[in-house]
Amino acid sequence: MRRYILLLISIHLALAIIGRHHRDSGFLNHVQLVHEFQCSMPQPRAVPVAELLTIGPSPDEIFYPASTVLTRCEGAGCCSDPKQICAPIETRNISLVFMVKHMIDRQRDRHHEVIHALEHTKCGCVDKRIIKFD
């Protein structure tokens, strides 16, 4: 009986050590994944045209395409300090051409409209309290 109890204790101890090793290994893999995804390069994001307009489109206007792709820093990488977020540290202005169609006033022809947008070109970890969003 004593051998049986010692065997059970040994098995329980071995399982505890193996379980802890598995958790430690999982933690280290997670830390490595986060470390490899550091905030530095912006990533493509879909941006609705309405977000690019200083005044929203009139109910009569339909822009095509309805959205565009711009590089953005939000969600593009991790920061080690919880008080920081991944934000743009370098940007550039770009011009995008959209076709505008008028739904109500059909006498007006379709036309092209140039909309200026700010694209993120480099990201960095910035204090959440000082970041301003565009």
TrEMBL record:
<dbReference type="Pfam" id="PF00341">
    <property type="entry name" value="PDGF"/>
</dbReference>
<protein>
    <recommendedName>
        <fullName>Platelet-derived growth factor (PDGF) family profile domain-containing protein</fullName>
    </recommendedName>
</protein>
<dbReference type="InterPro" id="IPR000072">
    <property type="entry name" value="PDGF/VEGF_dom"/>
</dbReference>
<feature type="signal peptide">
    <location>
        <begin position="1"/>
        <end position="16"/>
    </location>
</feature>
<dbReference type="InterPro" id="IPR029034">
    <property type="entry name" value="Cystine-knot_cytokine"/>
</dbReference>
<feature type="domain" description="Platelet-derived growth factor (PDGF) family profile">
    <location>
        <begin position="60"/>
        <end position="130"/>
    </location>
</feature>
<dbReference type="GO" id="GO:0016020">
    <property type="term" value="C:membrane"/>
</dbReference>
<keyword id="KW-0732">Signal</keyword>
<dbReference type="GO" id="GO:0035099">
    <property type="term" value="P:hemocyte migration"/>
</dbReference>
<dbReference type="GO" id="GO:0008083">
    <property type="term" value="F:growth factor activity"/>
</dbReference>
